[in-house]
Amino acid sequence: MSSELLAPLDLAFWHLESAGHPMHLGALAVFAPAGEEKSSDSVLELLATRAAAIRRLRMRVRDVWLPVGGAAWSVAKDFDVRRHVHHVRLPEGDFAAEATAIAGELMERPLSRGLPPWEMYLLTGKSGGPFAVLVKLHHALADGMRAVAIGAGIFDEIADPRRNGVRKARPAPARSWFTGPLQLAGFARGRVEDLGRAVEVGASVVRASRLDPRGMPALSAGSSGTRRLGTAVLDLEDVQRVRKATGGTANDVQLAIVAGGLRRWLGERGELPPGGDPRALVPVSRRRPGSTTSSGNKFSAYLVHLPVSEPDPRARLDAVRTAMDRNKAAGPSRGAGAVAVLADQLPPLAHRFGAPLAGGAARILFDLLVTSVPLPRSALSFGGCPLREIYPMAPLARGQSLAIAMSTYGGRVHVGLVADGKAVPDLDRLAWCLTEETAELLALTR
To answer: What is the distance between the alpha carbons of residues 219 and 368, in angstroms, rounded to a whole number?
Structure first.
């Protein structure tokens, strides 16, 4: 495929970006050394080779004449992987702390819009020690699930499927461009249903919009353009114990941990709200189970009040579970959180000129993003070095200071917190509060 139009939601993300609010996803993967010591140059060469082999990473965005205001993915004829893969040597000391700090700084930098929109950084410390790979992918290129599918191409098990006997996915069968009367009727009926859902979502957004969106200073401070990364690791077995004892899903428990962690952290800052709980936008995939992971963004979201003002941890968990059950009953294509559904109904020109305005209005609808990114369950490695930790990172919307992303791997929940560097200088404390809240919820089950 030499050219492919950007889907409406991809186009929206492409035009949402500004210098102070880059719209790229990220992940910090930490690997342990194994076997024979490898030089940094050989590891960097392997990273570049595998990244260059991922066809999607050779695509850049270019404007098109039709549709008016649209854009398309096309293969970059002058593609050079060395423009995208870099090596950063960290000062000796605490490798985890140094890698986290530099990853936050690298997340500040927007991706070049004239090149395929992605970067990878090899972060190395002392010889023979652990190393890390930071991956940055523009949100127009992929949503969370698609980003995992693209980024996974650097791992041994995906780059060389024979290691685990994994078969490559078969190409989708060709589709005819010629349609019959029944197909046309089905398309028209689908469009009417889509427009009806969009009108319903639009009305929900208007009803949910807040006239005074100021909220808590920690979550709504003015943007400085800086980024800070915080990390936390939760034991998946602890999360599952709480789930089995209280009901609901593991995701409900994780959202309750976020709510309790925010309560502790805001209380220490003297910003605990008396009753105005923050709203979280919780993305949910619109990809059908078993379907191919096609390109582009395919997700909606739920809008959830995090019960930060509730002092009882069990009551917080019950409130989160009730809110999520209500959202699931309505479905991902309804409610104010499903703003992404509206993007599919807008023409490209509206995205080009309206996306910056919509980005500035995010603050009136939600206070922070809380997302969960699925990862392969099998053990992963790179150049024979086992993957030990992987922290997902989400972009910050305009007017917001914090985004939280979680991934489960190796029996642990890895939490990546991305914050405005000046608005949230105590991000490490919030990360620790999540660990404390997990322990408190676990204690209730005993």
So the answer is: 7
CA angle 17, 22, 28 (to 5 degrees): 145
CA distance linking residue 30 with residue 416, whole number of Å:
13
Collapsing DSSP to helix, strand or coil, 300 comes out as strand
Q: CATH code for 3-163? A: 3.30.559.10
Tell me the pLDDT tens digit for each residue of 9-48: 888 888 888 888 898 999 999 999 887 778 899 999 999 9
Which tens digits make up the pLDDT trace of 91-128?
Answer: 988 999 999 999 999 999 999 999 999 999 999 998 88
Residue (of 339, 385, 335) closest to 362 by Cα position: 339
Domain with CATH 3.30.559.10 in the chain: 3-163
**CB under 8 Å to 284, separation ≥6 — which residues?**
299, 300, 301, 302, 332
Which class would CATH give 195-375+391-444? alpha beta
User: H or E element: which one contains 121?
Assistant: strand 118-124
Distances (CA, A) of 93 to 15, 104, 435: 40, 18, 24
261, 260, 305, 265: which is closest to 282 by C-alpha?
Answer: 305
Q: What is the largest CA-CA distance in the chain?
A: 69
Please name the residues in contact with 234: beta carbons below 8 A apart, sequence gap of 6 or more.
254, 257, 412, 413, 415, 434, 435, 438
Judged against a pLDDT cut of 90, whether residue 75 lies above it is answered with yes
Which one-letter amino acid corresponds to residue 133?
A: V
Tokens 């698609």 appear where? 146
Strands 59-63 and 71-75: antiparallel
What's the CA gap between 394 and 373, in Å, rounded? 10
The ranges of the chain annotated as CATH 3.30.559.30 are 195-375+391-444
Render pLDDT for 396-426 as a digit per residue (tens, 0 to 9): 988 889 999 999 999 999 999 999 999 999 9
CA–CA gap between residue 287 and residue 328 (Å, rounded): 15
Report the C-alpha gap between 149 and 163 in whole angstroms.
18
- What is residue 13's three-state secondary structure? helix
